[in-house]
Design a protein that fits this description.
This protein has 217 residues and is of the alpha/beta class. The strands form 2 sheets. The chain has a 5-stranded parallel β-sheet, sandwiched between helices. The protein has a two-stranded antiparallel ribbon with strand order 2-3. Strand 6, helix 10 and strand 7 form a beta-alpha-beta unit. Helix 4 packs antiparallel against helix 5. The N terminus is likely disordered.
Length: 217
């Protein structure tokens, strides 16, 4: 009798051999409200982050892409001086934005490390604020072979170049890497670069997705 063909819905894909992690709101719970509020109060912080005339995400992307915080704040002083105090509060009180580990993700990283699965980080984070705080506050990051920090490289997701740079540093083929990020646009960019990708919603869902790729979690 001819054996039945494997069911692709239940048979793990074992071609993935390395995991690349986004950090913010995947590994590290990042809430900028808390840092801004530490300087100007919660009500003012909420008003700032919801403002129609200022895009905090775009502002933060400048240092994430390699701009200095001094330059970023100088631009705000010129264009939106009424928000300068709020922007300065974010940088000054940045550790308050790192609320703690995202529930369940550290345990997955630990399980993969124990099984010998190589792991890396790929994060949009300013050079200054990542190196000064993240490794010290989140020891689980020490289980990653390297963290590619956008602000250090002068490149940021979803730019294709930072995915290619990260792949080179892993030493693995793109098709053997799976990227985990909470933003669909960043996962889509990984897919375009030839990687696998999983959009993070919570650790339980992620665990199932990684198991489906044959990873031991």
């Amino acid at each position: 009798m001819t054996p039945a063909a494997p069911d692709p819905l239940t048979t793990p894909d074992t071609s993935v051999s390395g995991v690349v992690w986004d950090l913010g709101n995947v590994v590290v719970d990042w809430q900028p409200l808390h840092a801004v509020a530490a300087g100007v109060g919660e009500e003012e912080a909420r008003r700032f982050l919801a403002a129609d005339d200022f895009d905090f995400g775009a502002y933060n992307h400048g240092p994430d892409s390699g701009m200095s915080w001094d330059e970023a704040e100088a631009r705000v002083a010129a264009s939106h001086p009424h928000w300068l105090e709020h922007c300065r509060a974010y940088r000054r009180h940045f550790p308050a934005s790192l609320v703690g580990p995202v529930p369940g993700t550290s345990e997955i990283i630990e399980a993969l490390a124990a099984a010998g699965v190589p792991q890396w980080g790929l994060t949009n984070w300013s050079d200054e604020l990542y190196h000064a705080h993240a490794p010290r506050m989140f020891p689980v990051l020490g289980l990653l072979r390297e963290v590619v920090v956008s602000g250090t490289e002068g490149l940021a997701k979803p730019d294709r170049e930072i995915y290619d740079l990260t792949r080179e540093r892993t030493g693995l083929p793109a098709s053997s890497l799976v990227f985990v990020d909470d933003k669909q646009v960043n996962v889509d960019a990984a897919l375009d670069a030839g990687w696998r990708g999983l959009v993070f919603t919570d650790a339980d869902v992620l665990r199932g997705g990684l198991r489906g790729l044959g990873l031991p979690v």
